[in-house]
Design a protein that fits this description.
26% of the residues lie in helices and 28% in strands. The chain is α+β, with helices and mostly antiparallel strands. It has two domains: 7-69, lambda repressor-like DNA-binding domains (434 Repressor (Amino-terminal Domain), Orthogonal Bundle), CATH 1.10.260.40; 124-225, Umud Fragment, subunit A (Ribbon), CATH 2.10.109. Strands 1, 2, 3, 4, 5, 6, 7, 8, 9 and 10 form a ten-stranded mixed sheet that branches.
Length: 228
C-alpha cells in the first residue's frame, strides 16, 4: 500500500520535524491557527489531515508536502555526499556532535577527532554553503534555557550580533558556551544562570585582553534540541 494517507507515516514525520525545529505542540498549533486537540490527533496518528493542512504544515517547516506524507528513504548508501540522507531526496543533513572544541584547531580537524555522534538539520539551512556543528551541554551555567545534557546546533561563523549565544574558544582552553554582548571596550561573556554561590558570573574581555589572549567566536546557536 502507498504511504500516501498513512496516518502512522505522517505522525512519525511531523514529530521528526518538530524535533528538528524545537517546536512543541502548543507553539505549532498557535502558529498554524489549528486547535491543539486536532493537531494532537494528527501527531498521535489518530486521524489524517486534509491536503490543505498538510501544505500549511509543509510551508511552516519549509519542506515539501511529500516530506510529511511519504516514508523517508534513509538506507545505507542512499546519500548525496555521505552526510545528506535521502529523506525526500534532499531533506536532512547530518552534522557532527563534538565532544571537544580545543583551541587552535580548525573545525574540520576537530570533526575528524572529536565527533561523538550526529544530529540532523534541514538541508535548507545549508543554502549559501553554510556549515554547522553541535555540542552537548555540560553543566547548568546556561540554564534555564539550555539544559545539562541536551544538544545545541551552531552555525559555524566568526560573526555574531550582540546578545547572541555563541560557542567561544579562549586560548589554551576548550570552547565555552555563553551569551556574548558587544561593549565599547570589548565583549562580555555571560552565563544565563548567574549565581554568585556557584561562580557563574559574567566575564568582560577588553580589546587589550583579546590581543593578549586570543578569543575566537566559532559558532552562533541555531537550535536547541530537547524532548518535545
Amino acid at each position: 500500500m502507498s504511504d500516501f494517507g498513512n496516518k502512522e507515516v505522517f505522525s512519525k514525520n511531523i514529530k521528526k520535524f518538530m524535533e528538528i525545529n524545537n517546536v512543541d505542540r502548543y507553539k505549532l498549533a498557535e502558529a498554524l491557527d489549528i486547535k491543539y486537540t486536532t493537531l494532537s490527533d494528527w501527531i498521535n496518528g489518530k486521524i489524517y489531515p486534509k491536503i490543505d493542512k498538510i501544505e500549511l504544515i509543509a510551508n511552516y517547516f519549509n519542506v515539501s508536502k511529500s516530506a510529511l506524507i511519504e516514508e523517508w528513504a534513509c538506507l545505507g548508501d542512499d546519500s548525496v555526499d555521505g552526510t545528506v540522507k535521502l529523506m525526500d531526496n534532499k531533506l536532512v543533513k547530518l552534522v557532527p556532535i563534538l565532544g571537544k572544541v580545543p583551541a587552535g584547531m580548525p573545525i574540520e580537524a576537530i570533526e575528524n577527532e572529536y565527533t561523538v555522534d550526529y544530529e540532523t538539520i534541514p538541508v535548507e539551512w545549508t543554502k549559501g554553503n553554510k556549515k554547522y556543528f553541535a555540542l552537548r551541554i555540560q553543566g547548568n551555567s546556561m540554564e534555564p534555557v539550555y539544559k545539562d545534557g541536551s544538544t545545541v546546533i551552531f552555525l559555524q561563523t566568526s560573526s555574531f550580533e550582540s546578545g547572541q549565544d555563541c560557542c567561544v574558544r579562549i586560548n589554551g582552553e576548550d570552547a565555552t558556551f555563553k551569551r556574548v554582548t558587544k561593549k565599547e571596550n570589548g565583549i562580555l561573556l555571560t552565563p544565563l544562570n548567574v549565581d554568585n554561590d556557584t561562580g557563574f558570573l559574567p566575564i568582560l574581555y577588553t580589546y587589550e585582553d583579546m590581543e593578549k589572549t586570543p578569543i575566537e567566536i566559532v559558532g552562533v546557536a541555531k537550535r536547541f534540541i530537547q524532548d518535545i
